């Protein structure tokens, strides 16, 4: 297949528009929104006819220039005919006896007020006690709701109600966010999609980009077509992912089938080759790297690939120490002092000495790569000026994820390949509004404006901005964020610990919003037990899910894409607006209205019970958002139409409050944005949406962070206190206890796939994605299959230390895993076939996450979804 064909096979224009028009259903109007699936964040237009969505197409005025992938192209299926997309929608609030958990049966329809009052009654009991720094009730949210909702989570959950709160971003972005704070001083993807056109070399680490962010992959194909072999690409992945189809091996592109979790060894080994071999330390100094470094420091030697000027001016070095870094969240940046090494070139000397142990021959066994391949990769890395590294879950979803990012940033820094067009690191996000979770402040460690919770100055500035001049309230907000005596951060539990403590009874109840942990979470048997034991499980969603089978309360939501107003932030920091195209079905309400209705009723209940101080505090926080609409929240059921109408104004208020409190936060400032600007203006390239930061009402946003333009604005190159990048000497470590052995000899990785989004809640109800991928499977290398006597299509049992699944084997000659590695998609749960309604017993015979481990990276607490030791048996 030619290069253009590879790109085209993933990029579709006007697919559903053509179908609608062939069926004589042309759209009467086109309404601007954003695709609700991946972190590419394609701008889309919903074609509306007689109040119904009839088609969807890419927005030609957006960065995606009219294109969408199969998931975006088939979105209209959710609104058409009598398909599961229409039939299955949740339309009424539901309640049931907790004893009846375990299936989707036995619910009764209730009014909004009955459902919310039931929750209020329970939660106000829970909030009489504490577990950790918070009350023992938790919200587990997602990267698929609006940024405004995420701000609500920060304002009312973390601060107002003082409950535990984390999002499913913990599973996919926590490593990147934490590592960026450590490296750069603040969170935020530093580069743009278009940087691929400026790069000479692309390193794609653990990122199945063609399948999981097809929108951005389209740009990479375009860049490769334009630049030909002047753009070299290295794909580092234990699975031969779809992106390898564009590699030209004869021209030097590389596919490196690395052993999972061993990227630090590979990165350090590339650095070793650059210093010891390409700079001539072995040849000219007989390997005496200290003597060579001294000559570099004195100026006697001018290295070819090491950027001494950049290091001297912009780099501080630290010892890579997981135990110390794990204390950052609670104790704040003073912990860096414990691991600080000399700065600038003296620190570089320590780095060069440290790398002695990473000779390619010495890491070949660990990484599974040949010394020759490591040398070729190192040569590619320093070829020409601009090298860009991009990575996603294969990097972050491992118990050593933070160390990988830090080792990679260090390599980019010492070679001066960071902080300009086409040079640097680009950790992306998987979910459509993954970054919104961080900017809104809905994940532990982040506060509104993507502030660092561990930073005292950030806590104080947030309290001040939110308090609107009321000093008493400012003190109260601050008290929710930090311990007044120790000045340590007061933090919620993170996701895995929320579920573990739900299981052991320390957390009493959970409210999930637009996420399906009974499929997506690691170690599903643990989640299953936790949800069964909880006193209260609330599920807020648009469709029945596997998690809903364990709910007592179900809250029907409007779909943010298509049925509500809001904003999303994509992987390149682009803020885009979503307009409402059609009314939600039945009594469904927008997420923000549901949450505010709960807080309103909870606050009234506290007042009635005499808990006046907490009630007054919540009233103060609610006021600027719902002022003038209070009577509507008194009787939600009677005011559904009015509350839907009020939604747009409430979203505007939330957005402008978030914009206000974000002012001054480097790289994350959206104070120059408003709904008005998002609707009427375009960015500097003429596309809809603006990339953060947007500093004032005439600013058009920044293309990238930490380049000269950034430095000119902030008077510092990086967002650390002294403006220097933090670089680390990190050894290859694997903190999780699990590894392969004689009993569990295979390494399992659980990726996403092109056809389905997350747990198939929506794509499983769209005809084409469902038909293409109706069930789960296990992909296995042909040599491993032969050894195990497995033929294509045989049923196999895959078992880890936590559970087992039974799926068909696919002897994969396309997306082939390296020998010893197997992969299966994690999208499938026990609801099985959503078209026929065929179900299984929970947690599901082919649910991949039954196998995965909830061990996590000690710093980011992101679980290890990309490695589990398994055994395989033909059945
Ligand atoms: S799934 Fe991603 S690439 Fe596909 S249309 Fe949606 S945002 Fe674009």
Q: What is the CATH architecture annotation of the largest domain?
A: 3-Layer(aba) Sandwich
Specify the overall morphology.
globular
Bound molecules: iron/sulfur cluster
Number of structurally distinct domains: 3
Mean pLDDT across every amino acid position: 96
CATH topology of the largest domain: Rossmann fold
Would you tell me the structural class of the helices and strands? alpha/beta
Q: What CATH first level of the largest domain would be assigned? A: Alpha Beta
Strand fraction? 5-15%
User: Mind telling me the C-alpha Rg?
Assistant: 26 Å
The residue ranges in which pLDDT falls below 50 over 5 or more consecutive positions are none
The tally of beta strands, per DSSP, is 28
Number of helices: 36
Protein name: Nitrate reductase
EC number: 1.7.99.4
Organism: Carboxydothermus hydrogenoformans (strain ATCC BAA-161 / DSM 6008 / Z-2901)
InterPro entries: Asp_de-COase-like_dom_sf, MoPterin_dinucl-bd_dom, Mopterin_OxRdtase, Mopterin_OxRdtase_4Fe-4S_dom, Prok_molybdopt-oxidoreductase
Structural notes for this entry:
Keywords: 4Fe-4S, Iron, Iron-sulfur, Metal-binding, Oxidoreductase. It is an enzyme of class 1 (oxidoreductase). GO terms for molecular function: 4 iron, 4 sulfur cluster binding; metal ion binding; molybdopterin cofactor binding; oxidoreductase activity. By secondary structure, this protein is α/β, with parallel strands linked by helices. The chain has a seven-stranded mixed β-sheet, with helices on both faces. It starts with a helix and ends with a strand. The protein binds iron/sulfur cluster.
């Amino acid at each position: 297949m030619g290069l253009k064909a590879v790109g085209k096979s993933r990029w579709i224009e006007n697919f559903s528009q053509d179908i609608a028009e062939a069926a004589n259903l042309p759209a009467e109007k086109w309404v601007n929104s954003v695709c609700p699936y991946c972190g590419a964040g394609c701008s889309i237009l919903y074609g509306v006819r007689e109040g119904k969505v009839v088609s969807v197409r890419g927005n030609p005025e957006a960065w995606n220039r009219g294109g969408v992938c199969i998931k975006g192209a088939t979105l209209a299926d959710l609104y058409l005919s009598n398909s599961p997309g229409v039939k299955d929608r949740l339309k009424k609030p539901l309640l049931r006896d907790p004893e009846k958990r375990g299936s989707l049966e036995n619910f009764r329809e209730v009014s909004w007020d009955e459902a919310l009052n039931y929750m209020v009654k329970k939660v106000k009991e829970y909030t009489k006690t504490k577990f950790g720094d918070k009350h023992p009730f938790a919200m587990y949210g997602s990267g698929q709701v609006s940024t405004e909702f995420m701000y609500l989570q920060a304002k009312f959950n973390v601060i107002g109600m003082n409950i535990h709160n984390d999002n499913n971003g913990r599973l996919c972005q926590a490593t990147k966010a934490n590592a960026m704070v450590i490296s750069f001083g603040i969170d935020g993807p530093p580069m743009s999609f278009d940087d691929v056109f400026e790069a000479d070399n692309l390193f794609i680490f653990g990122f199945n980009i063609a399948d999981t962010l097809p929108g951005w992959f389209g740009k990479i194909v375009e860049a490769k077509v334009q630049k030909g072999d002047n753009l070299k690409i290295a794909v580092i992945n234990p699975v031969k992912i779809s992106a390898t189809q564009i590699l030209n091996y004869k021209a030097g592109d590389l596919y490196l089938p690395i052993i999972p979790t061993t990227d630090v060894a590979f990165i350090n080994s590339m650095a070793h080759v650059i210093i010891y071999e390409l700079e001539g330390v072995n040849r000219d100094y007989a390997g005496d790297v200290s003597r060579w470094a001294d000559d570099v420091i004195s100026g006697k030697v001018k290295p070819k690939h090491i950027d001494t000027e950049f290091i001297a001016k912009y780099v501080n070095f630290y010892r890579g120490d997981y135990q110390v870094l794990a204390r950052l969240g609670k104790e704040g940046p003073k912990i860096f002092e414990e691991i600080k090494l000399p700065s600038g070139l003296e620190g570089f000397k320590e780095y060069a000495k440290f790398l002695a142990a990473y000779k390619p021959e010495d890491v070949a066994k660990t990484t599974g790569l040949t010394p020759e391949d490591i040398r070729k990769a190192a040569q590619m890395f320093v070829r020409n000026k601009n090298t860009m590294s991009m990575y996603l879950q294969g990097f972050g979803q491992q118990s050593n994820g933070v160390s990988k990012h830090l080792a990679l940033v260090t390599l980019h820094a010492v070679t001066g390949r960071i902080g300009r067009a086409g040079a640097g690191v680009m950790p992306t996000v998987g979910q459509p509004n993954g970054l919104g979770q961080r900017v809104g402040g809905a994940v532990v460690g982040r506060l509104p404006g993507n502030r660092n919770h561990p930073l005292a100055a950030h806590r104080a500035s947030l309290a001040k901005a939110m308090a609107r001049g009321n000093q008493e309230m400012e003190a109260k907000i601050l008290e929710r964020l930090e311990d007044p005596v120790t000045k340590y951060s007061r933090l919620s539990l993170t996701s895995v610990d929320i579920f573990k403590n739900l299981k052991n009874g320390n957390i009493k109840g959970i409210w999930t919003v637009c996420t399906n942990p009974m499929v997506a979470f690691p170690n599903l048997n643990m989640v299953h037990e936790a949800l069964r034991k909880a006193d209260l499980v609330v599920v807020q969603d648009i469709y029945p899910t596997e998690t809903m089978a364990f709910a007592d309360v179900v809250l029907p939501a409007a779909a943010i894409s298509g049925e509500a107003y809001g904003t999303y932030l994509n992987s390149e920091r682009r803020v885009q607006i979503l307009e409402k195209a059609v009314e939600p079905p039945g009594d469904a309400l927008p997420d923000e209205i549901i949450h505010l209705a709960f807080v309103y009723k909870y606050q009234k209940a506290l007042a009635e019970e005499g808990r006046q101080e907490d009630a007054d505090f919540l009233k103060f926080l609610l006021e600027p958002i719902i002022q003038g609409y209070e009577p509507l929240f008194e009787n939600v059921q009677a005011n559904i139409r009015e509350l839907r109408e009020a939604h747009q104004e409430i979203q505007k208020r939330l957005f402008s409050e978030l914009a206000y409190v974000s002012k001054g936060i480097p790289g994350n400032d959206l104070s120059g944005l408003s709904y008005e600007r998002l609707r009427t203006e375009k960015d500097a390239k003429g596309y809809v949406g603006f990339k953060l930061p947007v500093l004032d009402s005439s600013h058009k946003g920044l293309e990238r962070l930490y380049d000269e333009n950034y430095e000119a604005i902030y008077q510092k190159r990086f967002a650390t206190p002294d403006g220097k990048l933090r670089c680390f000497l990190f050894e290859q470590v694997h903190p999780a206890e699990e590894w392969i052995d004689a009993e569990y000899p295979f390494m399992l990785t659980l990726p996403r796939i092109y056809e389905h989004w997350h747990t198939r809640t929506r794509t499983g109800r769209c005809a084409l994605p469902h038909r293409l991928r109706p069930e789960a499977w296990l992909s296995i290398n042909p040599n491993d299959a032969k050894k195990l006597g497995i033929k294509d299509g045989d049923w196999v049992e895959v078992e880890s230390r936590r559970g087992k699944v039974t799926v068909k084997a696919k002897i994969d000659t396309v997306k082939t895993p390296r020998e010893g590695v197997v992969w299966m998609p994690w999208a499938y749960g026990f609801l099985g076939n959503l078209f026929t309604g065929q179900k299984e017993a929970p947690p599901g015979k082919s649910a991949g996450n039954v196998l995965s481990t909830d061990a996590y990276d000690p710093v980011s607490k992101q679980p290890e979804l990309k490695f589990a030791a398994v055994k395989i048996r033909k059945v």
